[in-house]
Amino acid sequence: MHLAGRVDEYSPYINLTYLLTRKVIDGKSEIFVVGNSLGRSPSVLCRLDPDGNTLDEYWHFGQFSPMLFRDLDHTGAEELLAGG
């Protein structure tokens, strides 16, 4: 969204803010990392394989809060909870 008279500029610098790992069913690890912009936005949540290759990424307008894993639906698999 662009507002009249406002310059939309974002910092090109991102702090790596959170790093979480977990083992998945096949015994391999997944790595989750969050990068928050030095300004207010944007932030990115990435899921990496053990070699550091990006599997998924989600860009968020704002900042991510601390994250954690919990088994919300009692299936034995933990879901990632992220807010912001």
Protein described:
By secondary structure, the protein is an all-beta fold. The protein has strands at residues 14-23, 29-37, 43-48, 54-60, 68-70, 79-81. Strand 5 (68-70) and strand 6 (79-81) form a beta hairpin. The strands form 2 sheets. Strands 1-2-3-4 form a 4-stranded antiparallel beta sheet, with no helix packed on it. It is globular, with a radius of gyration of 15 Å.
Concise account of the structure shown:
The protein is built from no helices and 6 strands. The protein has strands spanning 14-23, 29-37, 43-48, 54-60, 68-70, 79-81.
Outline the fold blueprint:
Layout: E1 14-23, E2 29-37, E3 43-48, E4 54-60, E5 68-70, E6 79-81
List keywords for this structure.
84 residues, mainly beta, two-stranded antiparallel ribbon, globular
Tell me, what's the shape?
globular
Number of helices: 0
- How many strand units? 6
Q: What number is the mean pLDDT?
A: 81
Q: Which structural class is indicated by helix and strand composition?
A: mainly beta
Give the % helix.
under 10%
How are helices and strands ordered from N to C?
EEEEEE
Strand order of the largest sheet: 1-2-3-4
Spatial gap, N to C terminus: 19 Å
